[in-house]
Automatic annotation (TrEMBL):
Gene Ontology CC, one term: Golgi apparatus
Native species: Linum tenue
Stated family: Belongs to the PC-esterase family. TBL subfamily.
Name of the protein this chain belongs to: Trichome birefringence-like C-terminal domain-containing protein
Domain Trichome birefringence-like C-terminal: 1-253
UniProt cross-references to InterPro entries, sorted A to Z: TBL (IPR029962), TBL_C (IPR026057)
Listed GO MF terms: O-acetyltransferase activity
Pfam families: PC-Esterase
Length: 276
């Protein structure tokens, strides 16, 4: 990866994986000459010795939020203007899902645009599906996958409902110290994951789907809970070192394998499953 540019694009779960990768790289090369930069929406980590740039681009929805003439924030399900920057990278790891059902002060927009129609709200799963299709069309039309490797991080499960691990009435992960016994069953597979699989499977160009849901679902013990430095209960994000390190082991294995195979990397499976 010498001289390459790697960018995570997404929400705070992308940040989780980005920070995990930085920690892993620092552990592997603790004396490297590092430059850190931060700009609006983007964080940079540049290893001057190896010429590797690792970046985080914050984009909760992947599609655009635009301001209209009177200052209202409009979520445009059909626009991906940041793509001009993204496609300059050598590796892109995308993620979106966490923010799609947020309302009130945590909602990142005031109105939503679907084609020519602007409305106050719409079915959130429908909106998520339309936005992901817009992103998929952008990949097919704009990304040169001979230069740029594209990944998509699947749904990262939260653990606020103890019924999922046989403890009805439990409402957080604060006292959990062991993984869930058994795997993710089809009856509780998130609908968002199915949407992601269908849309990414329809992309003509090679996209690696990091299906992290099943393996992460078992790790109810892997969240910071109240030990997050911010107060409150966090059973959504992950401790580092922890679960995101495994996501990065999978990512790095694919990158190394692709590099060794060169042109034959096109033969890699379109979806990378991580069920165990």
């Amino acid at each position: 990866m010498k001289g390459k540019k790697i960018m995570f694009v997404g929400d705070s779960l992308s940040m989780n994986q980005y920070e995990s990768l930085l920690c892993m790289l620092h552990a592997a090369a603790p004396n490297s000459n590092i430059t850190r930069l931060a700009r609006e929406w983007i964080s940079f980590w540049v290893d001057q010795d190896y010429g590797v740039s690792i970046m985080l681009f914050t984009s909760h929805y992947l599609v655009d939020i635009q301001q209209d003439k009177i200052g209202r924030r409009v979520l445009n399900l059909g626009s991906v203007s940041s793509g001009n920057l993204w496609k300059q990278m050598d590796v892109l790891i995308f993620n979106t899902w966490l923010w799609w059902y947020r309302k009130g002060p945590k909602q990142g927009w005031n109105y939503i645009r679907d084609g020519k129609i602007i409305s106050k709200d719409m079915n959130r799963m429908t909106a998520f599906t339309k936005a992901l299709r817009t992103w998929a069309k952008w990949v097919d039309s704009s990304v040169d996958t001979r230069k740029t490797s594209v990944f998509f991080q699947g749904v990262s499960p939260a653990h606020y409902n103890g019924a999922a691990w046989g403890r009805p009435g439990v409402r957080d992960c604060s006292n959990e110290t062991k993984p869930i016994a058994g795997g993710l069953t089809q009856s509780v597979v998130p609908l968002a994951l199915k949407v992601q699989q269908d849309i990414i499977g329809s992309i003509r160009k090679p996209v690696h789907f990091l299906n992290i849901t099943a393996m992460s679902y078992m790790r109810k013990d892997g969240h910071p809970a109240s030990h997050n430095g911010l107060g409150g209960m966090d059973c959504t994000h992950w401790c580092v070192a922890g679960v995101p390190d495994t996501w990065n082991h999978i990512l790095s294995t694919i990158l190394i394998h692709s590099g060794k195979r060169g042109k034959e990397s096109k033969k890699l499976p379109r979806q990378t499953l991580a069920h165990k």
